[in-house]
Write a structure and sequence with these properties.
The chain is mostly beta strands. It has 5 helices and 9 strands; from the N terminus they run αβαβββαβαββαββ.
């Protein structure tokens, strides 16, 4: 009996061996991936408004144009009455000190051209007080040689019960521009700005009873003064301290940026628009905090 040979195995296609990936190929692939991948952008909500609170030394320029003898009418009442030995003489020895004035501001950012163009308003509050003068003294404003030799007493010229108070609310309507291009694109945290516009000062003077004063000519101690104001300053954007926290704050509350800032203010209120009124403007510096949202 003839033996049968097993069938020959069917030919199987050989699997080509894969050459190991070269370092050059890996480098090319990495470069391609990096060039096509998009870097995640920082979340940013719409930015339309800003608020700020600031404070600086202030003293109304009521006596700016006074050219008489001694101190002006404002300094005569509210000036420093302490002599060199810290004794209260009741007579003005030096010009009144400047007092801290808080200011609150709000702006609407209606256009962005490398930074927001804004229309805003500010309101401040200034207060001063002094013991009321008992009457017109021949030494009021500038002590004469006789008064200096006689060692005047405060009670001879000032009331120990009544206090005169001067109050001022300076208002301003300002157009401003803040250059934020470098801060937005290149993370440079410095943001310069400028603002300017119309100003109006509401003022009133109260006697010891807390009512508006009335002088001998029946004129009430209250009024308003028109003028203008310019602010020039710089801001430090605080996002660079904790960028991730700033992003989360924006995502959670809509606050785009936070700032600390300083500025110099020039205001001419009462003589800046060609009208004669009580001059309550002042040139000063201010510092504060601001947020954009």
């Amino acid at each position: 009996m003839e033996s049968v040979s097993p069938p020959a195995s069917l030919p199987v296609a050989a699997t080509p061996s894969r050459a190991p990936t070269s370092d050059a190929a890996i480098s090319r692939a990495s470069t391609l991936t990096a060039s096509t991948a998009q870097e995640p952008t920082r979340y940013r909500s719409p930015q339309r408004f800003a608020v700020e609170i600031k404070m600086g030394p202030y003293l109304p320029d009521v006596d700016r144009d006074y050219d008489g003898d001694g101190f002006g009418p404002y300094a005569t009442i509210f000036g420093d009455t302490q002599d060199d030995d810290n004794n209260d003489t009741g007579l003005t020895q030096r010009a009144p000190p400047r007092h801290p004035m808080p200011v609150l501001g709000f702006e609407w950012q209606f256009l962005h051209l490398g930074g927001p163009v804004s229309l805003g308003a500010t309101v401040g509050l200034f207060r001063d007080k002094a013991a009321a003068l008992l009457g017109e003294s021949p030494n009021a404003g500038a002590p004469s040689e006789e008064a200096e030799d006689s060692e005047p007493d405060a009670s001879d010229y000032r009331s120990t019960a009544d206090t005169v108070r001067f109050n001022l609310v300076p208002l301003a309507l300002l157009v401003g521009y803040r250059f934020e291009l470098l801060a937005d694109r290149y993370r440079v945290p410095l943001v310069p700005y400028v603002r300017g516009g119309l100003a109006y000062g509401v003022w009133w003077s109260l006697d010891g009873s807390g009512v508006v004063e009335v002088d001998d000519r029946d004129q009430r101690g209250t009024g308003g003064s028109f003028g203008w104001q310019v602010n020039l300053g710089g801001m430090l954007r605080l996002d660079f301290i904790e960028p991730d926290s700033a992003t989360e704050l924006d995502r959670a509350s809509g606050i785009n940026h936070t700032y600390v800032f300083g500025e110099y203010q020039v205001s001419r209120i009462g003589r800046g628009l060609g009208r004669t009124a009580l001059d309550v403007g002042h040139d000063t510096w201010m510092a504060g905090l601001a947020i954009e949202f």
